[in-house]
Amino acid sequence: MNLHRVWAVARTDLRQLAKSRDYWLPMGLLAALFFIVIPVVALNVVTSAQDSEVVTQIGTVLDTLPLTIQENIQGDTPEVQAAFAIAVYLLAPIAVVVPLTIAAAVGSNTIVGERERGTGEFLAHSPITERELYTGKLLAALIPGYGATLVGFGIYSLLVNLIVGPDLGGWFFPTSGWWVLILWVVPPAIAIALSLIVRISARVQSAAAAQQAASLVSLPVIVISYAVASGLVYDPARTGLVTGLVAWMIAYLGLASGSRALRREILLGIGIKSAKRVTVPKR
Amino acid sequence: MSDPAITFSRVGRRFGDIEAVRDLDITVAAGSVAVLLGPNGAGKTTTVRLATGALQAHAGVIKVLGMDPRVDGNDIRRLSGVVPPKAAFYDRLTGRENLEFAAKLWELGAAAPIAAAAERFGISEALGQEVGGYSTGMRTRLALARAILHDPTILLLDEPTAGLDPESARAVLDLIRDMAGQGRTIVMCTHLLHEAEGIADQVVLMNEGHAWVAGHPDHLAEQYWRDTRVHIDAEDRTVLEVLPDLEGVVAATFNGHVTAELDDLNRLPDIIEKLVGRGARLTRVEPIQPTLEELYFEMQRHRRRQREGAGS
Q1: Residue-wise DSSP of B251-309
Q2: Which of B18, B105, B130 sits opposite A126 (nearest CB)?
Q3: Looking at chain B, which terminus has fewer C-beta neighbours within 10 angstroms, N or C?
């Protein structure tokens, strides 16, 4: 596999994405909503709560968590404990929702976009291999999704430490669970979703159909990842590492089979189910 | 004929129950210009796609530069330049960025002659603009620049002048002449007969996925063109008024220029001798040659007659 060609494909897609304001602006807003707006509002409400009933309700929720987790919750007052629990445990799934949503939006348009533009014909006649193209397209979808997550995670960490940190005696975030989640679990989770989405992108007739199908596929992946993310921050050592390992293995299998499924003819719009065909009159 | 650069032997390709090409036999000599002529749906685009291995044949054998596209597709594509029917680009990228992308796919490195290719097709000044703002002509010029960026051994042009202004169309035909002059092998698909005029070493007439006639235009004219008319002119035209009386002349018309219809073109030397004997100083003796368009329709008629004969 020629990595220069792989990167050329990825970079071309990323350059287009960077110039498509109508595409990245909603995605940026989504990331900002999950990593900035919701945490800031939630943490501020809790830490500055005058209404003890709110804190009491959150305390009730915290009481339902496993005992080991309850023991790990830091803070001297119920408000601080609630803020800690929200920051560390309850908002963990946003680290999965954001990259998967962004990666799905980008990935669904990759192959079908080439076909719709007509650039698929150019690629089909070029010396790039199907595997190189597939990998390049995958990177082009993975980089903005994971990149947004890393940036969002950094901002989230900063905000959490600024809002809750003073009450806990200093910086406390990210915790080990979050490091495992961000560095070990999120990348394969994106790869699993993309292995399905890029394959869909190669098989559908239009970008609109690809978006719809990608949503259907990514939704269960998001739900599963959401549940896993929620669980593993409670138990990063075992759940996180094992989950990540399994996710990497599934991702590898998905990517390997997805790479084989991309054929050059698909770039020409041939082999697509129900594709319109130019009829040649019969003799 | 020099060694073939491209050979198709009984090649077939189906799309479902539709035969896009069937029993296709084509041989293109290295360093020659072959023009695939035929109506829409004749199988020309499929032929180009099969040649580079973008599509796989279901039957027959294809050799391009001695290689099998099914096995050595990437090597063939590395040596081929293709101008597709739709000059498609990444519209949000500039012309330069699109060419840089092509240069990377062909591993040309920093030495990629992007500026030279753009200069050749007169788009240097537009290179920094997003391709989305290009006119159809500019897009085609950019497609041409992209196709020759890696100095291909084989150039395949699929309806390259479709929808082009005359200037851009001329740029396409000039490129073909230039590349042919450099010994490159060129295959051009078109349904516009006048485009093939004067550039084709070989014309392949395709229809219904099959090549039914192939050859040099002159040879095809010899084979299919039965016109026995001759343009004749002399310093003193009155001498030519004897033409209808000469043996072998079926008819003669005198409207602006003189045209004599003979019963056999082989009689022409005798007729010239007689006219000279009568004191004519001839300035023009030119058997009427068909345009490619006339030849095409004559061959179509010939083929129809053959099929009707076979059917009865």
Answers
A1: EEEEESEEEEEES-GGGHHHHHHHHHHTT--EEEEEEPPPPHHHHHHHHHHHHHHHHHH
A2: B105
A3: C
